[in-house]
């Protein structure tokens, strides 16, 4: 469930001291709150849910945890490619054999934070996400941790005034992209991953990276590569060859795993080799002061 968390203090996702995961969602039936725990000895997942969307969240929990993750052919691919850096992939596939690509089945809910993360550092995007959910999200149903909020419906996103986008720290380009996408939210929810990719990229302000980030989470697409990511090409290149690379080089390295390229990048994020950090980190901008 970790890919669905948007930074520390995410109002829609919290990890409690008892290791329970709390998550809110605007389901087709309305707002809902989900609490998930794992009983490791019994190998059992225990879940509770509250709100109008409670039943939907419980019914779709297996998909969220990856029950429908299509892994056919992946082990064969991993076994066939053992030379060089690809031996690391085989090692990670064994070490993280339980990792699955889950799906939320909520496209617009995955799209908004992806747009906020466009071309900015994570801290900047997550700050905007927190501000907007705290301002426009409704309180989470049930005994959720204090401060949890439910993602607002598309009609609310369409009506957020320009000054509140500014207060959140999101400039006009990202704000317009989200407001425009909200008009097509219902159509996006009904699309398959391939259809959603076409529809998303037809909308102003949404490109390959944003579409991939959305489909990874909403559809559990194991092949959706985040082309255009600031860090990913370096991670893939350094893990597999010991050298940094660009998007074209990353796609060439991932080509043998077509059909599972996002799965490979997820494994590398969990246990790959990152290039040495040199120089200062990119600073978070603050549009609120402009």
Would you give an account of this structure?
With 290 residues, this protein is an alpha+beta fold. Among the domains are: 71-97 and 222-276; 105-218, Endonuclease III, domain 1, CATH 1.10.340.30. It is 45% helix and 11% strand. A 4-stranded antiparallel beta sheet has the order 1-2-3-4. Strand 3 (30-39) and strand 4 form a beta hairpin. Helix 5 packs antiparallel against helix 9, helix 5 crosses helix 12 (208-218) and helix 11 (193-201) packs antiparallel against helix 12 (208-218). The protein is globular. The mean pLDDT is 93.
Attribute tags:
290 residues; alpha+beta; Endonuclease III, domain 1; four-stranded antiparallel beta sheet; 15 helices; Alkylbase_DNA_Glycosylase/TA
Approximate shape = globular
**Series of secondary-structure elements, N-terminal to C-terminal:** EEEEHHHHHHEEHHHHHHHHH
State the fourth-level CATH superfamily of the domain at 105-218.
Hypothetical protein, domain 2
**CATH architecture verdict of the domain at 105-218:** Orthogonal Bundle
Structural class designation: alpha+beta
How far is the N terminus from the C terminus?
A: 36 Å
> Number of helix segments?
15
Q: β content, as a range? A: 5-15%
Q: Write down the Rg.
A: 19 Å
Helix content: 40-55%
The mean pLDDT is 93
Q: List segments where confidence is low: pLDDT < 50 over at least 5 consecutive residues.
A: none
Question: In CATH terms, what is the fold-level topology of the domain at 105-218?
Answer: Endonuclease III, domain 1
The count of strands amounts to: 6
Assigned CATH class of the domain at 105-218:
Mainly Alpha
Q: Biggest sheet, in brief? A: 4 strands, antiparallel
> Which sequence of strands runs across the widest sheet?
1-2-3-4
